[in-house]
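Re: export button greyed out
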Amino acid sequence: MRSYKLVVVSNRLPVSVSKRDGELVFEASSGGLATAMSSLDQPERIWVGWPGIASDDLTAADKRHITTELAKHDCYPVYLTKEQIELFYEGYSNDTLWPLFHYFQSLTRHKDEYWQAYVSVNKLYSAAVQKVASSTSSVWVHDYQLMLLPGMLRAAIPQSAIGFFLHIPFPSFEIYRLLPQRKELLEGLLGSDLIGFHIFDYARHFLSSTLRLLGVSNQQGMLEYQGRTIKTDAYPIGIDYEKFKHTLSNPETKDAMSSLSQHYKGMKLILSVDRLDYTKGIIERLDAFKCFLDTYPKWRGKVKLIMVAVPSRTDVGTYQQLRDRIEQAVSRINGEFGTVDWTPISYQFQNRPFAEVVALYASADVALVTPIRDGMNLVAKEYIASKQNRPGVLLLSEMTGAIDELPEALSINPHNTRSVAESMNEALTMNKREQQRRMRDMQRRLKSYTVQTWGREFMGDLEATAHSRGKHYRKHMKGEHRNEVLDAYAKATSRLIILDYDGTLKDFVASPRALLAKPSLKLRRLIKRLVDDERNHVAIVSGRPKKALDKWFKGIDVTLIAEHGAWSKYDGRWSRVESGFPSTKKKLKPILEKYVSRTAGAEIEEKDYSLVWHYRNVTPELAYVRAGELKRELIHAIDDDEIGVYTGDKIIEVKPVEISKGAAASELDAIYEPDFTLVAGDDYTDEDMFRELAHQAVTVKVGPGHTRARYRLNTVAEMNQLLEELSRQKNN
Ligand code: GDG
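Workaround output, generated via the alternate export path:
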């Protein structure tokens, strides 16, 4: 199989396969997504997904035929069995994720067999993508059925650009946390380079869940995870605006419009179009319509509610029950208010041809869009686009993503029955000029951000994010770079090795307390082996107090720099810089103490030349607020330019500005005059060393994030591994 530049993956392919009278039938759908993809400037494109037919019904020859036929449409099939469709699609996707993500907690079923099927079907998609993608491909994964796929692909083809777009809401943390597999799904999504949502609120909810559940924080929507930077952003899907405009002048549409105007002569038309789904607020809409007829009897006999409900997920029990409830509600209203020559509601439970839908949009005086929750809602946008030079009013639920872009609509809360009824009356009585004005404003917006723009913008951002990841990877110390460093080390006769401690030699522990952070026997042996080589001068340069360092490295002849350079121990004797900080410290300590008592999990670390407020164990969102407050209060309380307040990895630190690891590193360099220098560190305090010794040293940043170091190693384990290799270098 050849590999393609762009691979689009969604649960369903844009071509559906079925069997009629034993013959395979292929039907291409021209949905929004297909339009967006075909407008991308990328001819080498393939679409991976399920063709819509269970594989149990297919012979090997059928499958060959399908695969060949689909290839003509640039599609590649993933075959699913009936059982997989039941457990993965109807089960985990539509019985677990769909209700929960739309805040229907009581309709959400949690079954282990659903989850097992979800994992194994995501694996099938991953295997299919790997057949058509390579490390130079961009893969765009769509929607909630495939949330594990980005992680699986990252493991299999790590260099490829992987994007994910969620078409439904991402719920708030309070809802999302209910999901038993909440962590696995987040980890799956974090395999992406770019994660897109319809609106900013969903992105915000996602970021809060990654912070609360995985401890991964973000800066302006950018996450650092496993050595990669992941972008999250809002991309509100648009519609194919021109298509609606053109369709209006089709003979078919015109015919449908004239038969509508004849049929409903003198009648105001209120329209609703949706998939029959409990998220769409169809029952709430009917309640509001009844309330409208009760409250405004003048409209009886003069309005008609045309309700098109497209059959959807008809094999799922909840949907069958909903259908019954809707039919009963429609009959009740028609029975109660109907007369010999007027039926209030025309209910159509069927899929209408596209031209007819456009004719309905163009003819309706009011569109009634009432979802309880909706990721975006395209119907609202399509109604506006079909109203070229015609008046009309859109009633739009506040709970849709679309409301952000359509503020000129009459916004409604579908749960507030009376107010929806009032808005219906307001819509029907709004003057035509006002209607046209609102329409024009909304049309201008929809025309400038179409589904094509949406697709291009997402792909542009995906490629840019993946490109900067590539740059990041290139810094990784491996292959040729690593050999050069090992070589230079082996050749050198006087080497200086400057090592930060926490986050560089030793993984962070929950508390700053010395006992927990002490070096393992293995680490002590490693340092000792380096020190024992007489060509080496090894210095541990840390923010830790001297007492801890002394204890940890007792018996090893290593230079120790404590408290970021405030104390240094050369040849077994400690000396310190002169500073007036201890008196300032007395004044500032009560402020930090106040923030410890107000913030569960926070603690203070006191050193001779600095005070540190640690918040690693504080609930992330509280920590964010308190850290900001504390920083402001400290800055306010300090009237000395020589004292600085610093933000580190889950810490706020106050210390004299003159004391820095950079100054300490320079001093070490001046004392030893080495012909090989290695400097390794992980946080902002180490960047000072990287800057000071930029020209003469091999500088190594451990972990993610921006750095001025020449090389990067992803983890503490990788750093230890490098030191192991150095310590075993043979003499040259
Ligand atoms: C999901 C998210 C998000 C409906 N009846 C007929 C018909 N339709 C077409 C409409 C529209 C589409 O179906 C429905 O799109 P929505 O956006 O309203 O809703 P979902 O299907 O739930 O879509 C949603 C969307 O993904 C995209 O990201 O906006 O929030 O839930 O295009 O026109 N089309 C035809 N006959 C019908 O009877 N031909």
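The chain has four domains: 6-14+30-51+73-234, 241-448, 476-577+659-727, 581-656. The button fix ships in the next patch.
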